[in-house]
Amino acid sequence: MRLVFAGTPEPAVVALQKLLDSHHEVVAVITRPDARRGRGRTLHPSPVKALAEEHGIEVLTPSTLKPGTEDGEALRTRLAELKPEALPVVAYGNLITPDLLDIAPHGWVNLHFSLLPAWRGAAPVQAAIAHGDDITGASTFRIDEGLDTGVVFGTLTEAIRPTDTADDLLTRLAYSGAELLVATMDGLERGDLVGQPQQGEPTYAHKITTEDARITWSSPAFNVDRHIRAHTPGPGAWTELEGQRVKIGPATPVSLEEVRTAGAEVDTIAPGEIVVTKKAVFVGTSTEPVRLGQLQPPGKKMMNAADWARGLAGGSADKSVSEASKGVFQ
């Protein structure tokens, strides 16, 4: 089929490459405009744009798709000239207005990283991990005027592993989902694939803010573990120590007995309390404690938690940081 692909970040690159490797013809790509990044605030193309340009594919970068705007009208004119049969979409990041939905015979077909109607919205992978799901997946569906409410063409399932971060899970789904998207295009081309209405009670995964990523140490260890992994690498789970923000890498729930075995003489560890042994850092929750792997103090790179704690304690690794610096994560 003749396709125009819409996508922006790295996970969308995998799907675009799979489509380029298929027998379908990608005649153009729609992606977000170049964005300023880094210390120098220089303009960088989206990952999808970079791949498209490598393959000599036309790139369209409207800032908005709204009718009546210069960018929106230019896009409509160009799509009418390109005459796509379908527009596959992966994490494009711009609202597709109702008047564009039927611009191609098969419409806009979105690859969404959940088992719809579970986790409709902007952050389905993060939501699945944070809420303790054991299974998630990906769905292809036709975009309509609702929020991820269109008919579903295909699904796949993916187990959430005990140590999965959002990046780990999204990477696997990007590859398996790319295969699903190509299979969906194949089925639409053959004419034997019919979309099915979504079944079940929907749940929603709103766009994540930095504030959402703050750790609540008074939660059970299971939730703390899931929360940290769900927000890794971005925006990054964080907490505060003496008014300064500290980013926390994935942590492992452990028993109090393991803390004692590691060398700490403790009967309990209060939520947020930091306990340090020679080789480990533990933090209390409302249930069992968690052992920290890495963390990032203000203005520094990610580092081993035990190295950080020794610095706070003036080089000592034999007492709790709270004794040395009154350190309790808030």
Question: Can you describe this structure?
Answer:
The protein has 330 residues and is of the alpha/beta class. The protein has nine helices and 19 strands. It folds into two domains: 204 residues, Rossmann fold (3-Layer(aba) Sandwich); 104 residues, Roll (Methionyl-tRNA Fmet Formyltransferase, Chain A, domain 2), CATH 3.10.25. Strands 5-2-1-6-7-9-10 form a seven-stranded mixed beta sheet, sandwiched between helices. The longest helix is centred in the middle third of the chain and has 25 residues. This is Methionyl-tRNA formyltransferase. One of its GO terms (cellular component) is cytosol. Keywords: Protein biosynthesis, Transferase.
Short key terms for the protein model shown above:
alpha/beta, 28% helix, 330 residues, 9 helices, Rossmann fold, single chain, 4-stranded antiparallel β-sheet, 7-stranded mixed β-sheet, Methionyl-tRNA Fmet Formyltransferase, Chain A, domain 2
The count of domains is 2
User: What name is given to the CATH topology of the largest domain?
Assistant: Rossmann fold
CA distance, first residue to last residue:
55 Å
Which regions contain 5 or more consecutive residues with pLDDT less than 50?
Answer: 315-326
Name of the top-level CATH class of the largest domain: Alpha Beta
Task: Write the CATH homologous superfamily of the largest domain.
Answer: Formyl transferase, N-terminal domain
SS strand fraction: 15-25%
Strand line-up of the largest beta sheet: 5-2-1-6-7-9-10
Enzyme class: transferase
Family: Belongs to the Fmt family.
Binding site for (6S)-5,6,7,8-tetrahydrofolate: 114-117
EC number: 2.1.2.9
